[in-house]
Amino acid sequence: MKKKLMVLGASLLLGGVTSAQKVTFEEYDLDNGLHVILHQDSSAPVVITSVMYHVGSKDENPDRTGFAHFFEHLLFEGTENIKRGEWFKIVTANGGVNNANTSDDRTYYYEVFPSNNLELGLWMESERLLHPIINQIGVDTQNEVVKEEKRTRYDNRPYGNIFTVVKEKMFEVHPYRWTTIGSMKDLDAATLDEFKAFNKKFYIPNNAVLVVAGDFEKSQAKEWIKKYFGIIPKGEKITKKTYLEKPITETIKATYEDPNIQLPMLVTAYRTPSMKTRDARVLDLISAYLSNGKSSKLYKKIVDQEKKALQIGAFGYNQEDYSMYILYGIPMGTTTSAELLKEIDEEIVKIQTDLISETDYQKLQNKFDNNYVNANSSIEGIAENLASFYLLYGDVNLINTEIEMIHSITREEIREVAKKYLNPNQRLVLDYVPAKAKSQN
User: Fold this and answer.
1) Among 215, 245, 255, 326, which has the highest number of CB atoms less than 10 A from its own CB?
2) Block means of pLDDT (10 residues each) for the chain, length 441 residues?
3) Pseudo-torsion of CA 217, 221, 222, 226, nearest 10°?
4) Cα separation, 378 vs 50, whole angstroms
5) Full set of structural domains in the chain with CATH
6) In what residue span(s) does the Peptidase M16 C-terminal domain sit (predicted)?
7) Where are the alpha helices (DSSP H) in 40-117?
8) Total-model pTM
């Protein structure tokens, strides 16, 4: 009876989540190839204008890394009609906020304004696309900004270079092998013409999606979109390169010394398939089962019960071409990294051998229902999800149907996917340790 009630409760919860959270949208293309997505929501008098470009660090030349992230900063420098230093002032003066972010696969810009400033937001994003000013003053200014960001987030931050090392070891030929922030040496060596060429190639309407979400009148929005974006010339077609990595068949062992830490960290990483695959979603469930929160299997066993680690965690780093599944832990007391790895492997073997319990399975479903609701709880979240599902997944309606896919994943699939990807001969084992003190003679 209890099991029947659990199943009934789960079905009711799913029905409630999918109906209450359905995101409606309209999409169409301009003649220049710009894809447009409109989502109306009058619950609050705000509107977001956002543009996502299909360019990230994987589109860079190996000797010019960091360009995509650099442009995240550079394209706030100004345009022919927005003077240098005025972008943020205009946004703030009109009651708005804005930001941008870059990944290996895409670059995203957005403004959130009171709904009566939709035209302003559209004009500003069209200006970024049509009339950017790329000059030496802007390049030099943002070069210093990026250098400071690298020092703060990577070089001087405890455990700040873990991801740098993991990517270098996990990929041999794919551009995922370098970090999004790139190399300062490469940015210093780049010429102004190289920056201009990068902009001309990738920041074009047929390599982007525009999302307008929030409180607006649709016919008026379409008029303004045509007015400001329709005049932008279509760019040359971009041909994306395909990079194939050989399967990892032996454990990759590495050590990295970090002068900013006092405690060692064990890191293991597995190369996994594209985030567009069903297996990637199964791995997300596995990650949550193992280490999402203090009730997860690894935390309860290794941190709470056995006191062998100060911290333990796992997460999927999902990307367009390949993904990674990363586990990490800080050994406690006399526990060694090897002993900690043995404890982690025991839990992975359990997933590979036995079905997780019905109770744990239902907890996972509830957790992902909650994640789904939170992801679509704000206009900002909906706008970015609409852009991402179109540009990276090729299916905007995944914003509504992905949760159904999660619910269709079985306990048997969880076991089989763990057996397929999470084996010792398919991973990197990184000992991330404090730097040894240099002897003074």
Assistant:
1) 326
2) 43 47 95 98 96 98 97 96 96 97 98 98 98 96 96 94 96 97 96 98 98 98 98 96 95 97 96 96 94 83 93 91 96 95 95 96 95 93 98 97 96 98 98 78 49
3) 160
4) 14
5) 23-229 (3.30.830.10), 252-434 (3.30.830.10)
6) 190-367
7) 67-74, 87-93
8) 0.93
